[in-house]
Amino acid sequence: MNAKSLGHRRRGFTLLEVVTVVAIMSILMAAAIPSYQHMLQRRQLQQVAELLSLDMRHARELSVSENQIIHISYRVGKKWCWGVSRNQPCDCTGNSPAARCNIAQLDSKEFPHVLLDMAQDAAFNPGLGQVAQTGAAAFRTERGQNLRVQLNPLGRPQVCGRDAPGSVACP
Prior knowledge:
elongated; 4-stranded antiparallel beta sheet; alpha+beta
């Protein structure tokens, strides 16, 4: 017998085939989503560290070129922020109009899964770009990934930690 003798050809999928494909796709997605979220959080963590490192480099350059003290100020926690300002520390939260961050500012709104656990304010010496105190800002994700941005005595930032690009160990 051929298909013409049956009257017509069957087209499409059976309900059992569709249910099987949906079940397999669900299992694959359940396995892939946590891995994807882990990757996204790690990328956010790296972006935050890169942005802070850039702001630190810019602050150092300004202290040399403008011959002024440049400050980096932080607020730690889940609703973290940092700000860069001339001549005096600033309030990166924006709650104090007298102490605005007049060079740069960033907060946690764009990076909701990144936390700032610890940070030490820094001031770059005028004309030299050096810092009186070396310090670090320690970031982590909700999934336990960690990075630090450290300033050396010359005022140069370094991103380090086991989740740093290239896995640079912190000194």
